[in-house]
Amino acid sequence: MAAVLSGLPLVAGGATGTSAPTDLAGNVVQLFNTSSSKTTVLIFVRTDCPISNRYAPELERLYKEFASSAAFYLVYADATNTVDVIRKHMSEYGYTFGALRDPGHELVKLARARVTPEAAVFSARGQLLYHGRIDNRYVDFGKAMPQPTKRDLEEALQSVLAGKPVGVASTPAIGCFLADVR
Amino acid sequence: MTRLVPLAACMVAVAIPAIAANPAPFAPAVTFYRHIAPVIYRNCAPCHRPGESGPFSLLTYEDVKRRASQIAAVTKRRYMPPWLAEPGYGDFVEERRLRDAQIQLIQEWVKQGSPAGSMADAPPAPKFTSEWQLGTPDMVLHVAQPYQLSADGPEVFWNFVIAVPIKTARWVKAIEIRPGNARVIHHASVILDRSRSARRREKTPGAGFAGMDLAVAETTFDPDSSFLAWKPGSVPAAEPDGMAWRADPGMDLVFNVHLRPSGKAESVNPSIGLYFTDKPRTKFAMLVELEHDGAIDISAGERDYLVSDDFRTPLDVTVLAVYPHAHYLCKLMEGYATLPDGTRKWLIRIPEWDLNWQGVYHFKEPVFLPRGSVISMRYHYDNSANNVRNPNKPQKRVRGGSQANDEMGNLWLQVLPVEEGDQRAVLQEALMRRLFEKYPEDFTANFNLGDLLLSQGNAAGAVPYFERAWKAEPRSALAATELGTALASASRMPEAIQHFKRALELDPQFTDARYDLASAEGASGQWEPAVSDFSQVLKERPEDAKAQQHLGEVLFTWGDELASAGHDEQAVERYREALAYRPDDAELRTRLGVALARLGRLHEARVELEAALRIDPNSEPAKKALAAVRAQATAK
């Protein structure tokens, strides 16, 4: 149950609205807490985005790498995605971590996310420490390197968890626009 | 003629809603139903619909609205619809490319908030079939085992080997490829494997095998006349009238697919529909390849490496289609012809090559090239870090080869000679001469040129080509045999026999070599080995009428030789053996009768001579001999 994510309201004035972010059980979530919360990673995805879908195995790998020290959530910001659609998508692509619905794009705004896939790393107190691409594999639409040469999200998380400042706090991501599913 | 092109383009531009060209202070309203739907339905929906390659459907206002700014972005950058060929450098049937005004229209629509507009303005919804687009096929071929593509990992190039279960040869006028899982298949092509050679590369029958470009250069497209390929959005079409291709019993189709992991495990299970016709081929097109893979050697970091090839056509031809191919380092591709009067005729220009969207390009109008035109390919490669698709990090030296980390550069052309009838041998000779210029030691070039000279009666000229071919592939029993054949035709019989024997050491089951050896031995008067080898051929191929005939000849001639040396008893044995293969040979029976008569076996002699006269009642030698035998019998 996601009720453990109690604490400070996520966005002032937004948490109780009908478009507030919820978990898949329908509970309104408040991610950041002064006592129990951890470093939080939000990954914005769309069910119909080939680029974010192709990242599923890599995202699952990162989740497993950091599961003990950071909280990972997929964020579905498409208001038309029902809980059933989300669960089916997660099962098809082998996601084993948590998911949130963000129909009002409050998390999108908070993370300054623009496309899918895009990642945001928050401190336990809700400070945005990194946002942007997972890695540099995609250079443009349809233009991808066979392997990334820089794994930005992984490096940012390593820094945060080691208590160091993040080298590059913001990177441009290539993917499917979140604005279209507003 | 060429003046018509800009005129036509002008007229099209006028027909577009005057959005971009209209600098009015208030932009006119752009709506989905009136302005955007026609563009999307025609250019996007063929792939963006259920079951096709597009990752989502674009069939309704809701579908499009949910990706509006995405569509604006990818069309503006011309990433979508994917179209590699530069306009103005070839006019293709497959063209799917937005005009500038259409792109501008989409930008404006999104800027205005992507309004739906009035449904009264809506064009008819696009109609697609989820069934076979060409109708029910005459035969549907399935892969033996679907390929299981992992969720993650590199791109995969996979080959399915599919048998064609037909009992007699059939003419195929069309194929339709159903990819089975279009979203992970980037490109597919079908290769005809008449010798079933690809099958040997499967670990277990039906398992398929990995590989990017099939390394069966001499049979890949030969004697193919058509490109059999699929790419996202491609519309299957029948071959032009008179250009059906022949499917032979026992042949395989090799189905080569380029797959890209999607993020989840996928099963790839394609099928192929064949459409037959009773109309045999009357037009003999041929696939012609320009390439120079053997010269590719790109140092690490090289930013502009040129691969070129040129081919002078020995005939008036039309080019019906082109298929450019390279791997990940190629950037710019140019294919053109220089006519005898010096003018340049473009075939294709691809300013930014992307393997993911490779495909066949059919000309709207066949491109006529008079005899003597030089067809050229100029491909440019970037092996530096600037090339994001460079598979090697750090960069390394790259050479020609069929693996994804090697490079290739091909410009395949579908060429139809203008003159009627089968002119392919003329093209083949010119191609092989060009291949020989590029690769003087190459097996295929030397072997085919040798064959060509041999078929023209120039055996002595053929010998050095076959010698080089055999040197290139010393394990090739076929090369040793052909060299032997050329030597035999050049009356160098002892050497010929030596090469046939060598071929049989390489492959003792190679019946053709044994047949040639037996023939050469027979021609050299080596009767015993000739008889022994022809007998072996007949064990391996009992129905071989030529071997039967030749064995009979050898025994007959051997008998003659024995008879003229006075060994009539042995001569009779050989003649009798020969009769098994030539029972209706009056002359043979006459000689046998004469030899028997000389031995005093008059009754047997009479039987044979009478038999000879039944076959040929006018045979004077038989009549004379029979008269002599009768006289002798009476005298006794």
Structural class by SSE content of chain A: alpha+beta
User: What's the pLDDT, averaged over the residues of chain A?
Assistant: 89
Low-confidence stretches of chain B: 1-25, 216-222
Shape of chain A: globular
Largest sheet of chain B: 5 strands, antiparallel
**Overall mean pLDDT of chain B:** 90
- What percentage of residues of chain B falls in helices of 4 or more residues? 25-40%
Strands of chain B, total number: 21
Radius of gyration of chain B: 33 Å
Which radius of gyration of chain A do the C-alpha atoms yield?
15 Å
Give unreliable regions of chain A as ranges. Answer: 1-16
Which strand-content bin applies to the residues of chain A? 15-25%
Report the helical percentage of chain A: 10-25%
Describe it.
The complex is a heterodimer of chains A (182) and B (636). With 182 residues, chain A is α+β, with helices and mostly antiparallel strands. In chain A, 23% of the residues lie in helices and 21% in strands. Chain A has helices at 50-54, 56-66, 83-92, 106-111, 152-161, and strands at 22-23, 39-45, 70-76, 98-101, 115-116, 118-122, 128-132, 138-140, 143-144, 176-177. A six-stranded mixed beta sheet of chain A has the order 1-4-3-2-6-7. Chain A is globular. Residues 1-16 of chain A have low confidence and may be disordered. In chain B, helix 7 packs antiparallel against helix 8 (459-472) and helix 9 runs parallel beside helix 11 (511-523). The longest helix of chain B is centred in the C-terminal third of the chain and has 20 residues, at 545-564. Chain B contains 17 helices and 21 strands. Chain B is α+β, with helices and mostly antiparallel strands and 636 residues long. In chain B, the strands form six sheets. In chain B, strands 6-3-9-5-7 form a five-stranded antiparallel beta sheet, with no helix packed on it. In chain B, strands 1-11-4-8 form a four-stranded antiparallel beta sheet, with no helix packed on it. In chain B, strands 12-21-15-18 form a four-stranded antiparallel beta sheet, covered by helices on one side. Chain B is 35% helix and 20% strand. The N and C termini of chain B lie far apart (97 Å). Classes of the chains: A alpha+beta (182), B alpha+beta (636). The interface between A and B is medium-sized, with 29 and 30 residues.
